[in-house]
Fold:
Amino acid sequence: MPRLKHVRARLSYVRYIGYLVRFHRDSTGTMNARYGNLPGLGVIALVVMLCATTAHAYIGPGAGFAVLSSFFVVFLAMFSALIALATWPVRRVIRAIKGRRALAKARIKRCVILGLDGMAPQLVDEYFAKGMLPNLARLRDQGCYRKLGTTAPPLSPVAWSSFLTGTNPGKHNIFDFLTVDRRTYKPKLSSVHIGGPRRTLNLGRYRIPLGKPDIRLLRKRTPFWNLLGSHGIFSGVIRVPITFPPEKFNGVVLSAMCVPDLRGSQGTFSFYTTHRNGDNEHTGGEQIRVTRKGRRIDSHLVGPDNGMVEGAEQAICPFVITLDDAAKTAVLEIDGQRVTLQKDEYTSWLTVNFRLAPGVKVSGICQFLLRAVEPEFELYVTPIQIDPEKPAMPIASPTVYSVYLAKNQGTFATLGLAEDTWGLNERILDDEAFEHQCIEADAERESMFFDTLDKVKRGLCVAVFDGTDRIQHMYWRYIDPAHPAREGFGQRRRQNAIEDHYKRCDELVGKAMAKCRNRDTVLMVLSDHGFNSFRRGVDLNRWLIDEGYMVLKTGATGAKHLEDVDWDRTRAFALGLAGIYLNIKDRYAKGIIPSEKEAAVIRGELVEKLTGMKDPEMGDVAVSTAYNAMITYVGPYKKDAPDIIVGYNIGYRVSWEAAIGQITNKVFHDNNKAWSGDHCIDPKLVPGVLFCNRKITADGPRLMDVGPTVLDLFGVDVPEYMDGRPFQVADAEGGDCA
Structure:
């Protein structure tokens, strides 16, 4: 085993250096002499791999692990290395020819897109008036500032999918975070399918999967940077949502939204406590009761399901805590590491290993936060995430890109939704502890972004920062005097969190502008949608019951996932954040609506009844506009959408219960959670923002127009299937941008 460990380390280093060579060459068109040449590295890699016996593990939601045999890995490595050596000269010539042709037609050398998820134009205007955003104001004055049309519904996975494909949801097939399983009516992720391998080899009590899990991206259509790549133009893409699993193209990509944690969920935190109620259930996490013996506490991290051993449950990683009551500190011992825990201070990212079988383990990363030592012990652990240096499933393309980033800047969060909003909702975290996660995640991304800017001198650079979205979700209650959750979330409150974050975003923009001074670089700063308050939730399923479209089983108990619904008598139901589905025959397992003609009539009824619907208790309009998806969308996948997209008014959103198919006894509910701001409302009410360092002429610019605009700037024809149309972007004036 020691020899194998050293071999793996050497192989990782060789792949890392080889990646640096290719990244540097493809992005600048030159070869840096200190790295040597690629064929030579290929020979070294081949020699190293001939000495290795190793196994690669993959994990996904419900997929368990798939481990390739040592022989198969060595064979594939040898074969891949030989092919790479044989075709390297040809591939280099082809890339050079394509690159020259592409640049001959291009109006620019580089395009930089900085995405600030959820940046709201009304706050930008307010902060402009106060003189708080000098760099964005300078960018506005240098080029332009416009409101940017979003998608229906204005949800991040939907909007960013339209951004990267240039199409409406009817063509890219993403309509919500969740979609409905047509057989069971249960929710499932809309953007990715992860299943187990087709075959396994049974060796006694061990189950050895023969192949990789079935990991498929459900988003349709091609990202515009793939089209650039086919014309020889290199792209660096950092944490753009709905890029998991990563697609191979002429560039590098680090995936974002929908990357799971090591347990296969979208983020499960752990909270350890000596409280008597230590087994309480928490949305988004689990609470584990521990026992103190003197100064010592023994427990373990819960890892992925272990499908390699018959009868085994979840893999674990034991740890020991030694408490110091007087100093209010503790010492953590885990996986050969010894770390001092300070109250209310996060540890750095720690690598933890989960052993599945002899010689087989999977690596994850997490952070620990000591919340209290006495009178009761409290310890928060972030979701255990995929280790970017030893990824258990692909999170980047090429795979070694995440290794490069980790070696270049240190370990970083890989979870699609890295900021633990449910930790704050459930009062496990306080305001400061959650804000720390947002700031740290954006700082990690900033290092990646500027590394890409330094290396990609010709081509496309795209990076999306999530902090704006997450902080507005959780702290909008402080800027809305009428919000029900304005008070009551711990002592360390952050009333100015949103304002402070906009200032940080402005500083980021200033740094980006300094890197984009060349007149041949176009810089765009944009958001996928805006934001507003979420004071009241709407239980659409209770409304459907009251209106006669849904019927519950006798003795319904309020179960989740629509389990109380009598499908033989139900014509419509709601699940997820976007809207309402019709129970159509031949579409769903227990569908009762017999034809599209009758479905069209019901859609018309629902649109009419929902549009302008009022909240009788508050006297406000709750639904601004209801949209018939069969009219709103164009494309082959529109029948997979909710039949009705509900465009809520400001202050309203689907209720927490309705989103997971749990039916309550009334239609309207106060939202008392920290998650107090949202954008799941009428798209007309939450446009995004668009800044550019050049003048833009466009009548009502839309997010889906950005991709076609970039293609046009690089001289690449816009495909006919794209719904977006290029902006008219002015040529640079004078020399370098000030």
Observations:
- The longest strand covers residues 314-324.
